[in-house]
Specification:
single chain; 460 residues; alpha/beta; pyruvate-formate lyase- activating enzyme; OB fold (Dihydrolipoamide Acetyltransferase, E2P); 3 domains; 6-stranded parallel beta sheet; 12 helices; 20% strand
Length: 460
């Protein structure tokens, strides 16, 4: 259906099929490792860290199965469908290469993996970097050459050179009934402020023009520090990141009251914090949220949205929702549609509820039939499409800064505005006057056409 465009990660755009940005040259005798990275951007960062460590030890990174001495599959285990995809990827790697090491979220259930694929060499859990390296060493001993094996300052990236994900914490302190992330990745563990800033500075120095800040609960950053001097370290971190000269985009921000203080920085034109928030609202009816055990109160979110827009009128709000949650009635779903009319969110994704092994929501009564879930998803997305189309139409005639992601052989530039995160939001296309443009360039464009999720414009 037309209205699915841009609202969920399309299979051909997902980060999990990205390839390492490394030269394919391989010195004689150099062991080489392949990587299949599945799931969310947080898992992608884990893959980048593993590959960077391996490259520092002298391993080459193979872009295909045939050139690899072993393959690491970084799995996702959040949904049963993701587990199935992970098992399929493991099976493909075994078939194509035969020597496979499994890590990631699904690695927290080693028997589940070895039961389906007993020939894997090793299974490790999420962010167990040392165990992954130990498994690689056992399977393919390192053979470094300190005079040849040079590691780029940025390390190894699975994203284009001009943007990078910046993970600021692991784990989560919430107990949402549909989620097993705390079981797999543990409680909130925030990285030190200085370590995050040091990584961000290195990325910007290496040419990154956009930092995408990610964690399981970004606005809770630092609240796990018992000896902290300030109540909400997230505020200082966001402000400091905004001084580095790159675009800074905040993802997975829970709508706590202190978030309004970050909006002040977004409204400052001299700050790099983009006027963009990715907030996982999940639903709008208070009873559904209670059954989900969500930490936010739906009755307050509309007031907070209004407050944020009063501080920063150009702010873009993105969110994801679940339809067909156990017990969801037609009236509760209609409340969500009515809430959408009032909230007027700019970018919206939606998922049909599905059981996840180990999640408490599985035991809830009154599960919604699949055909009803599909119908509600269709109606929700039609609503989201109409809102998106109207909001984009209002941008026609405006001049906007855009970042260039790609210029194809026909000279068509694929770009993003400040309102568009890579992989999940829309694009702005320039079809003439693109000579000399390169990925990472930030240019001014006058919007002259709008679609359901994308824009077209002319460079000025």
């Amino acid at each position: 259906m037309a209205y699915t465009r841009g609202m969920q990660n399309p299979p051909n755009l997902r980060p999990d099929i990205a390839q390492p940005r490394l030269a394919s040259d391989r010195r004689e005798g150099q062991p080489s490792i392949g990587m299949v990275s599945l799931g969310c951007p947080k898992a992608l960062v884990d893959s980048e860290r593993i590959l960077t460590r391996l490259r520092a030890e002298g391993y080459g990174i193979s872009p295909d199965y045939s050139g690899a001495d072993a393959v690491i599959v970084n799995t996702c285990g959040f949904l049963d469908s993701a587990k199935a995809e992970s098992l399929e990827a493991i099976g493909e790697a075994l078939s194509e290469n035969g020597r496979v090491i499994v890590t990631g979220c699904l690695g927290a259930e080693p028997e589940y993996i070895t039961g389906a694929h007993p020939k894997v060499l090793a299974v490790t859990g999420p962010h167990q970097y040392e165990q992954v390296l130990d498994a690689v060493h056992a399977a393919v001993p390192p053979s470094p050459d300190p005079f040849v094996d040079l590691l780029p300052a940025r390390g190894i990236s699975l994203t284009p050179r001009h943007y990078s994900y910046l993970k600021i914490s692991e784990g989560c302190n919430h107990s949402c009934k549909f989620c097993i992330i705390p079981d797999m990745r543990g409680k909130l563990a925030s990285r030190p402020h200085k370590a995050v800033m040091r990584e961000a500075e290195k990325l910007v120095d290496a040419g990154v023009r956009e930092l995408l800040v990610i964690s399981q609960d970004t606005s809770a950053y630092g609240t796990d520090w018992k000896d902290r001097e300030i109540k909400f370290p997230f505020l200082d971190l966001a402000r400091d990141l905004g001084t580095l000269g790159a675009w800074v985009r905040l993802h997975y921000v829970y709508p706590y009251p202190h978030v309004a203080q970050v909006i002040d920085a977004m409204a400052d034109a001299g700050n790099g914090l983009l006027p963009y928030l990715d907030i996982p609202f999940q639903h709008a009816h208070p009873d559904v949220l209670r059954r989900m055990a969500r930490p936010a109160a739906a009755e307050k979110t509309l007031d907070r949205i209004a407050e944020w827009r009063s501080i920063c009128p150009d702010i873009t709000l993105r969110s994801t929702f679940i339809v067909g949650y156990p017990g969801e009635t037609e009236a509760e779903f209609q409340t969500l549609l009515d809430w959408m009319d009032e909230a007027q969110l700019d970018r919206v994704g939606c998922f049909q509820y599905e059981n996840v092994e180990g999640a408490r929501s599985n035991a809830l009564p009154d599960h919604v039939p699949d055909d009803v879930k599909q119908d509600r998803w269709d109606r929700f997305m039609q609503k989201a499409q109409a809102i998106s189309e109207a909001k984009l139409e209002a941008k026609v005639g405006r001049v906007l800064p855009v970042i260039v992601d790609d210029v194809d052989e026909d000279g068509i530039a694929t770009c993003r505005t400040m309102a568009d995160a890579p992989e999940i939001d829309g694009n702005l296309f320039i079809d003439e006057g693109t000579e000399g443009l390169n990925p990472g360039d930030i240019v001014q464009v006058e919007v002259d056409e709008a679609g359901e999720y994308d824009l077209w414009g002319q460079r000025i």
